[in-house]
């Protein structure tokens, strides 16, 4: 049996749904697309330059083995999909090696090494384009990759190796029905401004994750975006949920994910707003250990979600949050109280204004009071 065939069989055996292979050439079209829109992608220009040139990271690179993992084999609880993107619930996004979805790529890497391959460690590639070049996905107008028979709820992982292998035929096309624009219409922030063109700065997921100190623009979420975030605190699936290419998958009967069902009852917004170290470590990090490294950003996102729900019952929790030691949490709790806009919310804001020492929090309180 050829090495290519052995690799593909092993990948399927450890749970990947599809596997394809391409030469480890550069991706000039990918880099051109990102650099042409550098004002939107300033946070990722270095990463894109690296990913576009696999051999700049691993000079011996000859092939890229790219895989599809179907993370939608079980049901996702509604209590979680309201707030958390499915890919994070599925625990495969950058999963640690001691978790099942981290162990799978590790098994694959060990198999490749035992088969005589050098495997690039941390070698980045543009996963969606690599998988389309390898014929295992095509594109949606919402920018996601779609695998035949599954849809877009997939996780792509590539392995760069120093061996020449047998290569697959590309499927670099858009596979959407003619005239469909459902994803563009459904996006709350109009982040998809043309088919296959996303402005990440408007995407809810970006605003959940990358509005952090150390990123362009820091932790400030623009007011017009806050209002459209709804209850999403870590990722947004709306442009995939409305997609007819996912309908069959989303409506198919599936078993529950017992782990998610077990923790879902604790995934209430006040638990995020008043995040304890224990909740952060035992409930948040097993799902969301990837982008947000400080609990204050989850607290901020929960405050926005509570503000958008505009439920007067949340005033009590937001009042407590106005005494949080983190300025960021107080700023967004003030914004949320302004959205709820009851007499009680106004009283809390006025009392906080009298004692608040942070200028940025004072400013948010003033803005919130003006909106009531
Ligand atoms: S993930 Fe959400 S905010 Fe981002 S493009 Fe899709 S629908 Fe829009
Ligand atoms: S909603 Fe329509 S246009 Fe958007 S990705 Fe799905 S099929 Fe394509």
Rg: 22 Å
Tell me about the largest β-sheet: 3 strands, antiparallel
Helix content: 40-55%
Cα end-to-end separation: 72 Å
Chemical compounds bound to the protein: iron/sulfur cluster
Cα shape: elongated
Beta-strand percentage range: 5-15%
In the predicted model, the low-confidence regions spanning at least 5 consecutive residues are none
Q: How many alpha or pi helices?
A: 21
- What is the residue-averaged pLDDT? 97
Category by helix and strand content: mainly alpha
Tally of distinct domains: 2
What assembly state would you assign to the polypeptide chains in this entry?
Answer: single chain
Output the strand order for the largest sheet: 1-2-5
The count of DSSP E runs of length 2 or more, i.e. the number of strands, is 7
InterPro entries: 4Fe4S_Fe-S-bd (IPR017896), ARM-like (IPR011989), ARM-type_fold (IPR016024), PBS_lyase_HEAT (IPR004155), QueG (IPR004453)
GO molecular function: 4 iron, 4 sulfur cluster binding; epoxyqueuosine reductase activity; lyase activity
Domain 4Fe-4S ferredoxin-type: 163-197
Pfam families: Fer4_16, HEAT_2
């Amino acid at each position: 049996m050829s090495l290519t065939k052995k690799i593909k069989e092993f990948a399927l055996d450890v749970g990947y749904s599809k596997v394809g292979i391409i030469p480890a050439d550069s991706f000039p079209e990918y880099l051109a697309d990102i650099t042409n829109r550098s004002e939107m992608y300033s946070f990722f220009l270095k990463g894109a330059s690296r990913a576009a040139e696999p051999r700049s990271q691993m000079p011996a690179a000859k092939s890229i083995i790219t895989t599809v993992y179907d993370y939608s084999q079980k049901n996702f609880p509604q209590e979680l999909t309201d707030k958390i993107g499915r890919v994070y619930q599925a625990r495969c996004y950058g999963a640690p090696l001691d978790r099942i979805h981290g162990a799978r790529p590790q098994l694959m890497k060990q198999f490749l090494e035992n088969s005589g391959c050098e495997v690039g460690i941390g070698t980045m590639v543009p996963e969606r384009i690599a998988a389309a070049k390898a014929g295992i996905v095509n594109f949606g107008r919402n920018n996601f990759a779609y695998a035949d028979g599954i849809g877009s709820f997939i996780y792509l992982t590539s392995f760069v190796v120093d061996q020449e292998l047998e290569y697959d035929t590309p499927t670099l096309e858009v596979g959407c029905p003619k005239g469909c624009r459902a994803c563009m219409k459904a996006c709350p922030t109009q982040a998809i401004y043309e088919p296959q063109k996303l402005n990440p700065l408007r995407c809810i997921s970006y605003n959940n994750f990358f509005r952090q100190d150390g990123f362009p623009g820091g932790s400030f979420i623009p007011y017009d975006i806050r209002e459209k975030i709804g209850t999403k605190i870590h990722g947004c699936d709306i442009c995939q949920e409305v997609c007819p290419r996912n309908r069959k998958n989303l409506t198919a009967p599936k078993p529950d994910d017992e782990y998610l069902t077990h923790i879902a009852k604790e995934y209430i917004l006040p638990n995020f707003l008043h995040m304890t170290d224990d909740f952060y470590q035992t409930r948040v990090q097993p799902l969301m250990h990837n982008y947000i490294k400080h609990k204050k950003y989850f607290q901020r996102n929960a405050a926005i979600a509570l503000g958008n729900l505009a439920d007067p019952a949340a005033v009590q929790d937001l009042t407590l949050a106005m005494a949080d030691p983190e300025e960021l949490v107080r700023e967004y709790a003030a914004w949320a109280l302004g959205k709820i806009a009851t007499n009680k919310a106004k009283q809390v804001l006025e009392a906080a204004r009298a004692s608040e020492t942070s200028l940025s929090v004072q400013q948010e309180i003033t803005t919130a009071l003006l909106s009531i």
